[in-house]
Design a protein that fits this description.
This protein is of the alpha/beta class. It is about 35% helix and about 20% strand. The chain has one domain: 3-Layer(aba) Sandwich (Rossmann fold). It has helices at about 15-25, 55-65, 85-100, 110-115, and strands spanning about 5-10, 30-35, 45-50, 70, 105-110. The protein has a five-stranded parallel β-sheet, with helices on both faces. Helix 3 (about 85-100) links the parallel strand 4 and strand 5. Helix 2 (about 55-65) crosses helix 3. The chain starts with a strand and ends in a 15-residue tail after the last helix.
Length: about 130
């Protein structure tokens, strides 16, 4: 069976490397991007793109439908420093809720913001990491 993965932030450095590694393993890759023509450094890969945003649950549901695992490598940093913690928490929360709406999926939080703010994020501790 071919795994179907989704990469949030596939146009960025970390997300692009995840998408590349998945593609090299023969996985089906769907990527989320904010700008319609953005492909980052993976333009040559066979990626099914979905336009969307971490703040938009319907776009997150669209990108996650029919997948086995989601890699959250997207980062949202508002202009300025105020609101960064809340923006990261909100993005992760929206992804978690979208995964539940899409039928419960496995996902991995790989964004640099997730690592930096791990004590603030809704999936840690005491909450399942499954969709």
């Amino acid at each position: 069976m071919t795994l179907r993965c989704r990469v949030l932030g596939a146009t960025g450095f970390v997300g692009g490397q995840i998408a590349r590694a998945a593609s090299e393993r023969g996985w089906t890759v769907r990527g989320l991007r904010r700008r319609p023509k953005a492909v980052g450094a993976i333009g040559e890969l066979d990626v099914a793109w979905v336009e969307g945003d971490l703040r938009n649950r319907p776009s997150l549901i669209r990108v996650t439908e029919g997948c086995d695992i989601v890699f959250h490598a997207a980062a949202y940093y508002p202009h300025g420093t105020s609101g960064t913690w809340e923006a990261v928490r909100r993005g992760v929360t929206e992804m978690r809720n979208a995964g539940r709406s899409a039928g419960g999926i496995s996902w991995a939080g790989t964004t640099s913001a997730s690592g930096s703010f791990s004590r603030q994020l809704p999936w840690l501790p005491g909450e399942s990491r499954r969709g």
